[in-house]
Design goal:
2 domains, 2 helices, globular
């Protein structure tokens, strides 16, 4: 059974910068649910409320993704992982709840296999960029955890990177990215640019 705690307060909640929250060591983190909002009721998919979300440990950055891509990747897993909201868009009480998954609840064979053990010294940190110009931002949330049962060990890293390719098999790249639990965005220009977000396992 997972336990839930309120995230420690972010060090700042300021538009136009990345805002940091440190998760206490000594737990096994399964997911983090952010609560975000502002005075104008902006939503996450628009890209006008929050930008990049970074996950760090003491050894360096482990994941980087825009909030929009995070929402898209979660949605690939099924409707139950789609972005949750409350309230009415365009009103100050509207909230979005983007979720960072560390375990893999969509995989019945490995439900908790990738949850992150965080023994002392892990230094798990979340950085959330609030878009410049956002009025009265709200940034808080919860982490879901169980007792730690070992070292940090294998973790799943995510990075969003541009790739230059020659423009063949674009549909198959969309399909392959989805199969891997990621997404890709294709834009034209000299040649073809594919911006892919894919999970990669690393120790």
């Amino acid at each position: 059974m997972l336990l839930r705690k309120q995230l420690p307060a972010f060090q700042t909640v300021t538009a136009g910068k990345k805002n940091s929250c440190y998760i206490p060591d000594g737990v096994k983190v399964h997911k983090i649910v952010l609560e975000v909002g502002d005075a104008n009721g902006l939503d996450v998919p628009s890209g006008n409320l929050i930008g990049d979300i970074d996950v760090w440990t003491a050894s360096g950055i482990q994941r980087n993704s825009s909030a929009q891509k995070l929402v898209q990747v979660n949605s690939i897993r099924g409707a139950q992982y789609a972005l949750a909201t409350s309230g009415t868009p365009g009103q100050a009480a509207f909230r979005s709840y983007p979720t960072i998954h560390f375990a893999t609840p969509w995989d019945s064979k490995n439900r908790d296999g990738l949850a992150w053990n965080c023994p002392p010294g892990t230094g798990l940190r979340i950085d959330v960029q609030i878009v410049a110009g956002v009025t009265t931002p709200v940034l808080q949330g919860w982490y879901y955890y169980s007792p730690t049962d070992g070292p940090l060990a294998l973790i799943e890293k995510w990075f969003s990177s541009p790739l230059q390719i020659s423009g063949v098999g674009l549909e198959s790249m969309h399909q392959r990215a989805a199969e891997l639990g990621g997404s890709c965005e294709v834009t034209g220009g000299p040649g073809t640019t594919v911006r892919a977000t894919l999970p990669t396992g690393a120790s």
